[in-house]
Specification:
It is a single chain. Helix 5 runs parallel beside helix 6, helix 6 packs across helix 7 and helix 7 runs parallel beside helix 9. The radius of gyration is 20 Å and the shape is globular. Helices cover 43% and strands 13% of the residues. Strand 3, helix 6 and strand 4 form a beta-alpha-beta unit. The N terminus is likely disordered. With 271 residues, it is α/β, with parallel strands linked by helices. It has twelve helices and eight strands.
Length: 271
Amino acid sequence: MSQETKKIRVTTAVIRDMKKKGEKITMLTAYDYPTAFLIDQSGIDVLLVGDSLGMVVLGYTSTLPVTMDEMIHHTKAVCRGVQRAMVIGDMPFMSYQVSVEAALHNAGRFLKETDAQAVKLEGGRDVAEITRRITASGIPVMGHLGLTPQSIQQFGGFKIQGKGDEAARRIIEDAQILEEAGAFSVVLECVPGDLAAEITRLLSIPTIGIGAGVECDGQVLVTNDMLGTFERFTPRFVKKYANLSMQMREAVKQYMDEVRSGIFPGKEHTF
């Protein structure tokens, strides 16, 4: 990718055009300035400041405790490190479910208080009116169907969704409803690959898969998962491209050994 290409800011129009051209969309999560800076420099298309930060950064056991203020804080940091990628803020649990008015207010915070370009929210027909109102106010919305982590108590855990004809039909309908409501894209999480492929063919907006097979228009992973820095558990759909946890432990151990043995600091590190 040329330097000139990297400077072109990715927008909803760019994402839609990529689907039309058959170009795969790349998306990862980021929660801080240095990570966002490095990933953006690599040429990623979309950065999601996900409420997954509750688990992989803040140490919560689920995404449910994450607050709007925490999301705004981390989204600000991510936006400071980005020049090219589209930045999307994830609306946390109960920030949009209470009322349309609350949803509009909280979605607006992402664009007013950070440099995010869009928001993501979970759900299908149940959030159609909220999606419609948010997009009508000028805020792009990315949908999220299938395994929606904010509903894990209802699902009874992290389980694949859309198995069986009725469940699959409902997700297809939800995807079409979200498109009609104005969503510019939709995440499909933990659904059978055949179902995700069918939804991708039916929609004119891009689908972003996570545990949903190769036929989606793009893919997303939690960066901490794919770099190996989150060890509490690893979903089946994750491919680890690095094992930074091991490298960090080795580096810290080497540092401690050198301090204790008097090797560090050396003459080159001393004024």
